[in-house]
């Protein structure tokens, strides 16, 4: 999570995920990818990558007869159109959810994006455990440049005469680098021309 330190500094937030949970997520991801800690070439211990098979079969069964219908308003019609565009990805997303313990599906202007725990971190939760602050990382490569956008979503309590309200805010920062393992330097958002 190269982006976490930069996001914490730029948005003045802290990741509330415990180091123990991060270690478990990382270990589960390694097992799913077929590189568990117990594999050893020296001792001739291999993996049959059973975790991948279990996640895949669970996702297949969970989405076997799935149907998503939204109706009742213009917004519902728009949402249904977006879901129809990505319907074929649902099984894949559920498989990743099984592997990583969670994924977040976030609408964008052309459909939906799926984020694994390596592409987001939670900054705030309410007393019921609902996420009220989160930072997403979105990246793409263009020739020899790597572009990254950090997107900070949060509810902010604002006092009014009639009591508190909780407007929703989104802040963005963008970076460009010549290396995939670095965020690089800040860049103005209007200069980006890719899918970010």
How would you describe this structure in keywords?
two-stranded antiparallel ribbon; single chain; 5-stranded antiparallel sheet; 9 strands; 196 residues; alpha+beta
Report on the structure:
This protein is of the alpha+beta class. The chain has five helices and nine strands; from the N terminus they run H-H-H-H-H-E-E-E-E-E-E-E-E-E. The chain has a five-stranded antiparallel sheet, covered by helices on one side. The chain has a two-stranded antiparallel ribbon with strand order 1-2. Strands 6-7 form a two-stranded antiparallel ribbon. Helix 3 packs across helix 5. The longest helix has 15 residues. The relative contact order is 0.14. The model has no long low-confidence stretch (mean pLDDT 91).
Fold topology:
Elements: H1 2-11, H2 19-33, H3 50-62, H4 74-86, H5 90-100, E1 104-108, E2 111-115, E3 120-125, E4 131-142, E5 145-155, E6 158-160, E7 163-165, E8 168-177, E9 185-187
Antiparallel strand pairs: 1-2, 3-4, 4-5, 5-8, 6-7, 8-9
Helix pairs in contact: 3-5
Q: Shape from CA axes?
A: globular
Unreliable stretches covering 5 or more consecutive residues? none
User: What would you report as the Rg, rounded to the nearest angstrom?
Assistant: 20 Å
The helix fraction, in percent, is: 25-40%
Tell me the number of strands: 9
SS-derived structural category = alpha+beta
Main sheet attributes: strand count, strand direction, barrel closure: 5 strands, antiparallel
Q: Strand order, main sheet: write it out.
A: 3-4-5-8-9
User: Hey, roughly how much beta strand do the residues contain?
Assistant: 25-35%
Put simply, the count of helices is 5
**What is the N-to-C order of secondary-structure elements (H for helix, E for strand)?**
HHHHHEEEEEEEEE
What separation lies between the terminal Cα atoms?
A: 19 Å
Mean of residue pLDDT?
Answer: 91
């Amino acid at each position: 999570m190269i982006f976490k330190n930069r996001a914490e500094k730029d948005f003045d937030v802290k990741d509330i995920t415990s180091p123990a949970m991060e270690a478990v997520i990382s270990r589960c991801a390694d097992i799913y990818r077929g590189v568990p800690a117990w594999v050893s070439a020296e001792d001739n211990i291999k993996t049959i990558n059973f975790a991948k098979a279990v996640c895949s079969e669970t996702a297949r069964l969970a989405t076997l007869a799935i149907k998503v219908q939204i109706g009742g308003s213009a917004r519902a019609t728009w949402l249904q159109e977006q879901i129809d565009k990505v319907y074929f990805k649902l099984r894949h997303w559920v498989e990743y959810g099984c592997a990583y313990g969670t994924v977040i599906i976030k609408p964008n202007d052309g459909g939906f994006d799926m984020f694994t725990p390596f592409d987001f971190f939670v900054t705030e939760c309410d007393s019921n455990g609902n996420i009220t602050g989160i930072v997403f990382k979105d990246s793409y490569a263009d020739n020899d440049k790597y572009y990254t956008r950090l997107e900070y979503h949060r509810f902010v309590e604002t006092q009014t005469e009639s009591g508190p309200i909780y407007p929703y805010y989104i802040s963005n920062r963008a970076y460009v680098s010549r290396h995939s393992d670095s965020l690089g330097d800040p860049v103005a958002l209007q200069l980006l021309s890719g899918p970010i």
